[in-house]
Ycf36 protein
Amino acid sequence: MERRTPTVAIPPEQRPFNEYQQLRSSYFFRWATVEPRVYLGTILAVWSVAWIVSGPVAAWSFPPGRMPWQFLVGGAGGAGIILGLVLLRLYLGWSYVHTRLLSASVHYEETGWYDGSFWTKPAEDLAKDRLVVEYQVAPVMRRLRRTLAALALFYAVEALLCWLM
């Protein structure tokens, strides 16, 4: 597709700053922006609720009465997979908005998926969007990357425990 400044204005809901505001105000994605204590509490809550699915699967594989450690490690790992999927969804949503805010021109759809075009941001919008990225979106992205790295470390410990058992 060729890049051109359209004669029709970009729809307001597809402007990167408006997408950021919608993301920030949505119940699910707002979770990544709360204070650290609430953020960690929500991570633990999601992991605990994920035990509803992973616990029975782990119990079927490793009967808790005969193999308690394997049951705990298996259930924790299964719950971690569900938590990882939730965190990955958070990261992908924030990453999408991050990319669109940083770009000098963005793709948008005029009436449907088949007739998209590119919009080149005015200098003022670009400067505003980049400030939003620097002070609002980048800290959220760092937090999510650190959380995903901690989850990867959790999986490394899980793998080591499985290997030792």
Q: What stands out?
A: The chain has a mean pLDDT of 90. Residues 12-164 form one domain. The chain has one domain: 12-164.
